[in-house]
Design goal:
This is F-box domain-containing protein. The protein has helices at residues 3-14, 20-27, 32-39, 56-67, 85-97, 141-151, 171-174, 237-246, 264-277, 324-327, 345-352, 371-380, 397-407, 424-432, 452-459, and strands at residues 47-51, 73-79, 102-109, 131-136, 158-161, 183-189, 204-210, 224-225, 230-235, 247-248, 254-261, 283-288, 310-314, 334-337, 360-367, 386-391, 415-422, 442-449, 465-469. The protein is α/β, with parallel strands linked by helices.
Length: 473
């Protein structure tokens, strides 16, 4: 059998989710020819993934790593079974023996784990390690020391941890290893903000912040300047806003604030950060909470964002809008509004949007009395490519689609996504006037009631990708 054929078979064996590495080890024992083929292909030995390990896997994993020498390897270990705790600890010990060959390591466990004390530090420097992901239910001292040993790698570029060691003596010894770190994802104590100043190469931060209140925020002169391009933060409002008051990111291009931010003091912290860090900001994703002040003006978030291209905004319908919001956003190309619109907002958007540049518009909440305004919006947004809306039950769908057709924008619109209770009339309209789909390439219809026969007919339209969800049979 040709080596290429054998290699294809061995690749298939490696993809076995249950016991991928045991199959290849057995193959290497069949005959000298098979052994030569399987050991001569580095791609067969460059990764090891074990989920819910057994005690028998310890010796097999050791043999696997020995077979693959001297190639670098990616390792993924996961355990969700308390009865496999000993086997998991044994695998961690085996990995420590081969630390100098690691390219990446991921350790995921929903149960408590431990490491034999003699293996609490890797036996050799993990000098080739680029990526570390640690997500453990409980960090015992030996596991913590084990992790620190891997983090002390001069080539580390990505670190994902359930929690960065707050108040840990080892912080001072691992920070020199962060000199090449590009990405950090972790639970983060706000009181450790100063450590971020020791990350000269950092470009992406995703933090679940905790441990501070607005009253403990540092002063302006103590702010930490970060060279990051992407920032995403979650956590309680006090911790998020305390963190934002402590940092400034002049090169920031993408900013995400997950979970609601409300109340004037907290919004002021968010607004001040955006104003100080938003000169080159291109993507802004913000969720405002239900307690946002009724008279709050969203323009305070958009005061100085000349480069903003993508805005994803979710806020209560009572928040005051006016056309001034968008005059600060001359380059906006994508707008995603994540909640129900006030009944008067349609006209406001139509008047205030930078319509010539807008390419994508998505409105998640039901649109109230929006037919004529949307018709005007689409007629003025000559470059609109993607439209996603949720319509109220009383919306006349056929009238709505006719309005879109008459606007003449089907020549540009390539993606249409509509969510509605009953989509029968929309499908009937598209089947009656198929020329409306002349340039449409993707159509998504989310509905609780759809005529299955007409839906199948619509799917038969040539070159149209149709996704219809939730229809009744």
């Amino acid at each position: 059998m040709a080596p290429e054929v054998l290699y294809a078979i061995f690749i298939h064996l490696k993809c076995d989710i249950d016991t991928p590495f045991t199959h290849l080890l057995r193959v290497s024992w069949v005959c000298r020819y098979w052994r030569t083929v399987v050991l001569g292909r580095s791609s067969l030995w460059d990764s090891l993934s074990i989920i819910s390990p057994k005690c028998s896997h310890i010796e097999m994993a050791s043999l696997w790593l020995h077979r693959g020498r001297p190639m670098l390897v990616d390792i993924y270990l996961e355990n969700n079974d308390s009865s496999a705790r000993d086997a998991f600890s044994g695998l961690l010990s085996i990995v420590a023996d081969h630390s100098s060959r690691l390219k990446s390591i991921a350790i995921v466990s929903t149960v408590d784990i431990s490491v034999p004390r003699q293996y609490s530090r890797p036996l050799a420097p993990a000098k080739h390690l680029r990526e570390v992901r640690i997500n453990c239910a409980n960090m015992t001292p030996t596991v913590r020391d084990y992790v620190v040993g891997f983090i002390q790698s001069s080539q580390l570029t990505s670190l994902v941890m359930s929690q960065l060691f707050a108040g840990m003596d080892g912080v001072s010894c691992i920070t020199p290893s962060f000199a090449t770190l590009l990405e950090l994802v972790c639970g983060f104590d706000v009181h450790m903000t100063q450590i971020l100043a020791e990350l000269p190469a950092i470009r992406s931060l995703e933090l679940d912040v905790f441990g501070a209140s607005l009253g403990s925020a540092l002063g302006e002169k103590e702010k930490v300047e970060l060279p990051i391009l992407e920032l995403s933060i979650t956590g309680n409002d006090e911790s998020k806003c305390s963190f934002l008051r402590r940092v400034v990111c002049p090169q920031l291009e993408t900013f995400r604030v997950n979970k609601g931010v409300d109340q004037t003091l907290k919004i002021d912290a968010l607004s001040s950060f955006i104003c100080a860090s938003g000169r080159v900001l291109k993507g802004l994703y913000v969720t405002l909470g239900e307690d946002t002040p009724h008279r709050f003006k969203l323009r305070s978030l958009f005061r100085d964002l000349p480069a903003l291209e993508i805005l994803h905004l979710s806020c209560p319908g009572e928040v005051c809008w006016d056309r001034m919001h968008y005059e600060f956003l001359p380059n906006l190309t994508e707008l995603h509004y994540g909640q129900q619109l006030p009944s008067s907002l349609g006209t406001v958007i139509a008047l205030g949007l930078p319509t010539a540049r807008l390419r994508s518009l998505r409105i998640d909440g039901p649109v109230v009395r929006f037919e004529e305004t949307l018709k005007h919006l689409i007629s003025t947004c000559s470059g609109l490519r993607a439209l996603s809306i949720t319509l109220c039950p009383n919306t006349h769908l056929a009238v709505f689609l006719s309005a879109i057709s008459l606007c003449g924008t089907w020549d540009h619109l390539t993606t249409l996504c509509i969510t509605v209770e009953d989509a029968t009339s929309i499908i009937r309209h598209l089947l009656r006037f198929p020329w409306c789909l002349s340039s449409l390439r993707t159509l998504e219809i989310h509905s609780e009631s759809i005529d299955i026969y007409r839906a199948q007919k619509l799917e038969e339209i040539r070159e149209l990708k149709v996704e219809i969800c939730g229809f009744n049979r």
